[in-house]
Specification:
The complex is a heterodimer of chains A (130) and B (383). With 130 residues, chain A is an alpha/beta fold. Chain A is built from three helices and ten strands; from the N terminus they run βββαβββαβαβββ. Chain A has an eight-stranded mixed β-sheet with strand order 1-10-9-3-6-7-8-2. In chain A, strands 4-5 form a two-stranded antiparallel ribbon. The longest helix of chain A is centred in the middle third of the chain and has 11 residues. Chain A starts with a strand and ends with a strand. Chain B contains 14 helices and 14 strands. Chain B is globular, with a radius of gyration of 21 Å. Classes of the chains: A alpha/beta (130), B alpha/beta (383). At the A-B interface, strand 2, helix 1, helix 2 and helix 3 of A face helix 2, helix 3, helix 6, helix 8 and helix 13 of B.
């Protein structure tokens, strides 16, 4: 499956297993930067790791410092290989711009991406290959 | 987003690496928020100053970035982790890393305000002025009560705006988004600032739009508006509120929703230390607290977090002395959120009236919180 017409937020390309959630993420409070693991027991991705995955989530919430958390993931080698948002927010966009993590927004009505399927994001051409 | 020629050149690296990084950030957030262009801003307020929030990666980033980056507009900064006049119990490593961060921001030319309430410390520009505020309570408060125009910026996007003097013209910098399409109606009488905080926490989760209208409540006082702004900023992406009937959808905020937020955030019955100040306390709050504790003493350690500027004002009118006679301790330049003063090694649980503080104490400091309003705290913990 190829999802076209995705909106490029940060350029580049990346591939990995899809880590999918409908819940927003607070990158400062909910993720261990060293491992990329979600540490909030109330989050549906609890104990899953962002490392090497294509994170498919709605948008980030909460602390403005979440942008540095995203940059830290890159420095610790725990970063996702790409991010697919329903509506990218400023924290995700700015953190990924500095960490060189490709980001696209899915358009409304795009087909759902299944947990664990291998996904390739080509942000510059606005394509997500599932 | 369209860039002017000089902006394109800066993005391409012709004006150095720092400006190229800054424009890369501005382009990404411009795309994310659907901006047509960049506009000048008058003031940037940058977060990411406390070592506990940005870690080693942040320290190294700022050290390198500050070797060439210089602020282009007035830039104020968020709290650091601790009060450097009270380093007791703060690990040496933390102090060193914190000093490096302060030096980096200093090199860039920021005003070392170390406050999350710049709106209580600095002169406020005219209504309608575009600014770039990262600290979420400051963004929400300034949009909602002061008529400034900022998106809910990130630490890095506000930094990018600081050194370019520009931000995307989008979202809450345009009138359309400032007119809420969704409302929240409270159906019970609020008794304290804590009720405003709980409603804000609920609103952040419930509202996906950039602004929200609250009805069924009186116009909040400054103290209540600070609690509300901080809580909205903590749980969501919404960056502004109005008071009154909004357009469109309306969501109820009943005692049931307030209790659900309380159950999530208030994780202890009691605590072994009281922390007040997230956001940092202002003159109003210090005055109220001094009245509530007049002639009494705190029965537990009570830490008051405020900016050094507010502490100076409070000292001039005798407020700090009155509060210290009640046993309270002032911690300047820092705040409850992610401070190394409060750790799970030192404290089982904390008493606070801050919804935002409770969220970060629970989730980041891993310390339990007894959430109580200010009047209740002074009633239960003074004699």
């Amino acid at each position: 499956m190829i999802i076209n017409n995705c909106k490029k937020i940060v350029g580049g390309s990346g591939e990995g297993p899809a880590l999918v959630t409908v819940q927003p993420i607070n990158f400062l409070a909910m993720v261990d930067p060293k491992t990329g693991r979600i540490t909030d027991p109330k989050h549906e991705l609890y104990e899953k790791s962002l490392k090497g995955a294509v994170l498919v989530f709605p948008y980030a919430v909460g602390s403005s410092v979440g942008a540095y958390a995203i940059y830290s993931f890159r420095e610790y080698g725990s970063a996702p290989s790409a991010i697919v948002c329903s509506k990218a927010d400023i924290t995700t966009a700015s953190g990924c711009a500095i960490a060189n993590i490709p980001v696209v927004d899915l358009h409304k009505g795009a087909p759902a991406i299944k947990q664990g399927t291998i996904v390739r994001v080509e942000a510059d051409s606005g394509i997500v290959k599932v | 987003m369209e860039l002017a020629r000089d902006e394109e050149e800066a993005l391409a690296g012709k004006k150095g690496e720092a400006l190229a990084s800054a424009y890369r950030i501005l382009v990404a957030i411009g795309e994310a928020t659907g901006a047509a262009k960049l506009v000048p801003i008058k003031w940037a307020h940058v977060s990411g100053v406390n070592y506990n929030t940005i870690g080693d990666a942040g320290v190294q980033f700022l050290d390198k970035f500050s070797s060439t980056a210089r602020v282009a507009v007035k830039t104020t900064v968020n709290p650091i982790g601790y009060d450097r006049d009270h380093p007791e119990g703060i690990p040496e490593k933390f102090q060193e890393k914190q000093a490096s961060i302060v030096e980096s921001y200093g090199r860039m030319g920021v005003t070392p305000s170390f406050t999350c309430t710049p709106y209580e410390v600095f002169d406020i520009p005219q209504k309608g002025t575009a600014v770039s505020f990262a600290e979420s309570n400051a963004a929400v408060f300034s949009n909602s009560l002061l008529g400034l125009m900022t998106n809910k910026e990130s630490a890095l996007s506000a930094l990018a705006s600081s050194i370019t003097g520009k931000a995307p013209l989008s979202d809450l910098r345009l009138e359309e988004a400032r007119n809420p399409k969704v409302g929240i109606e409270a159906d019970f009488k609020f008794e304290s600032e804590l009720d405003y905080g709980l409603m804000g926490y609920f609103a952040g989760k419930a509202v996906k739009e950039s602004s929200v209208a609250f009805s069924g409540i009186a116009m909040p006082s400054t103290i209540e508006a600070k609690a509300l702004s901080a809580a909205i900023g903590t749980s969501g992406s919404c960056g502004m509120f109005t008071v009154g009937q909004g357009r469109g959808e309306k969501i109820s905020f009943t005692r049931k929703e307030a209790k659900a937020a309380m159950d999530e955030l208030s994780t202890a019955e009691d605590g072994d230390v009281i922390t007040l100040g997230s956001p940092q306390l202002g003159m109003n709050e210090l005055d109220l607290l001094a009245k509530l504790t007049e002639g009494k003493k705190f029965t537990k350690r009570c830490m008051i977090f405020c900016s050094r500027a507010i502490h100076g004002q409070a000292a001039k009118v005798g407020l700090t002395g009155r509060l210290e006679r009640s046993g309270a301790e002032f911690m300047c330049d820092s705040c409850t959120c992610l401070t190394p003063y409060v750790t799970k090694e030192k404290h089982d649980s904390v008493v606070s009236n801050s919804v935002k503080g409770a969220y970060y104490l629970n989730n980041s400091n891993k310390v339990k919180v007894a959430l109580k309003d200010l009047r209740t705290i002074t009633k239960e913990y003074t004699e």
